[in-house]
Amino acid sequence: MRQLLFFSNNKNKIIEINKIFNKFNLELLSLSDLNIIEEPEESGQTFEENAKIKSDFGFNKTGIPCFADDSGICIESLNWKPGVFSKRFLNKFKSNEACFDSIIKSTEKNNKKNAYFKTSISLTVKDNQNLIFNGKIEGKISKQAKGKFGFGYDPVFIPKNYNKTLAELSTKEKNEISHRSIAVTKLINFLTN
Ligand code: IMP
Predict the structure, then answer these.
(1) pLDDT at 15
(2) 7 close to ligand 1 (CB < 6 Angstrom)
(3) What is the DSSP letter of 23?
């Protein structure tokens, strides 16, 4: 059985990815299985760069093929930011609601409604040799924050051709269209073909 390291400390992501990998003849390891506590600084300017920093780090530490992901939201009215700073941007506000209000105000003021989520997965298989798998979901910023499912920016994002926010969709429905699942599907197709 081939071993593969998923460079993440996010328990929910590890559970989600484990479920997908169960079906395949791959032994998926996480950082805690290998007692890795150090993490590199995510100093990249793009999702691809940050994902590569993490997957290279994991491969260099263990010699095991390693993949890592990096995601975020890009909002037209904020000049397509916060991007790689999505987590830090949300944490700057006193609550998620305060952040959502600010995004909605800027969207209405500039009359620029578009937004997208993007995930980049980097797979490092050999010294300094990596592959990138991208997933993107396009949509727009809602007029008000709505919904209780999901996490992060889900309550203010309406996917293209939908009239609900991502936080109003069930996890199953979200997973059918999400940026993360698109990128993971590409990774799985590569690994199993
Ligand atoms: P990460 O790189 O996947 O940990 O994502 C960084 C940040 O982007 C998260 O903390 C969220 O704020 C935001 N984000 C990424 N994916 C999603 C999503 O599917 N829904 C809502 N927010 C997301």
Answers:
(1) 85
(2) no
(3) T
By alpha-carbon position, which residue is closest to atom 14 of ligand 1? 72
Residue 23: predicted pLDDT:
78
| Local structure of residue 93 (DSSP, 8 states) | S
Please give the C-alpha separations between residue 33 and each of 8, 79, 91, in angstroms, as whole numbers.
Answer: 11, 40, 29
**Domain spans, the chain:** 3-192
- The residue written with tokens 């926010």 in the block is 165
d(CA 167, CA 157): 8
Confidence of residue 16 (pLDDT cuts 50, 70, 90): confident
- Ligand 1 probe mutation, 86, 90, 156, 172, most atoms within 8 A of CB: 86
Convert the pLDDT of each residue in 48-97 to its tens digit: 999 999 999 999 999 999 999 999 999 999 999 999 999 999 999 999 99
Asked whether 106 and 78 are in contact (CB, 8 A), the reply is yes
Quick one: fold of 3-192? Maf protein (3.90.950)
Q: Which residue in this structure is represented by tokens 């059985």?
A: 1
DSSP reduced 3-state for 162: coil
For the stretch 137-184, pLDDT in tens is 999 999 999 999 989 999 999 999 999 999 999 988 998 999 999 999
Neighbours of 106 (CB within 10 A): 15
Separation between Cα atoms, residue 142 and residue 35, nearest integer Å: 42
